[in-house]
Write a structure and sequence with these properties.
By secondary structure, this protein is an alpha+beta fold. It has a single domain, classed as Inorganic pyrophosphatase (Inorganic Pyrophosphatase, Alpha-Beta Complex). 18% of the residues lie in helices and 30% in strands. It is built from three helices and ten strands; from the N terminus they run E-E-E-E-H-E-E-E-E-E-H-E-H. Strand 7 and strand 8 form a beta hairpin. The longest helix is centred in the last third of the chain and has 19 residues. The protein is globular and about 50 Å long. The two termini are 32 Å apart. The N terminus is likely disordered.
Amino acid sequence: MTNRIEHPFRPHPWHGLPVGPEPPDLLNAYIEITPFDLMKYEVDKSSGYLRIDRPQRSSSQPPTLYGFVPRTYCHDRVAALAPEATKGDGDPLDICVLSERAIARNEILVRTRIIGGLQMVDHGEADDKIIGVLENDYVWGTARDIDDVPPVFVERLRHYFLTYKLVPGEAVHAHVDRIYGRAHAREVVRAAMADYDAAYGS
């Protein structure tokens, strides 16, 4: 018996990978940045490979794994869920993943159970950060809502996203309007999936 090859070539991480086994609750997260990175990596939308976006200007490091959910897109439906936003940021939906064990490599696919998120608006654009936990993690795997993790983790995430683009002497354009739980996170994921289908087809 031979193994069936579903993809003779590497699939594009945004368009070629499934959103997850049980959306909107259990998702795939494509990891661009780890808690050990002082460079800002971002997927190149045309090729699907990671490129260096910029070195981190400050000493701030992401407190969790950070990436995006495949086949999602932040456009009108996502923006409609953020009262202060005028539009979506035009990127796939961002996701942060808590893991008890240190994971030091990026460009990996992580199965993630969502528990909440940050309603962030940057330059008037909806830029939500979904928060999830590594499925079957021995410490965080039983978490089902944002209140199931210590508030300090959410505080660190909020601080990171409010400061990682900070340039001394320049105005701050990003703000976090609210921290929400699993119920609203599910709405955001559904909206981002619908925005993707509208833009790129299901």
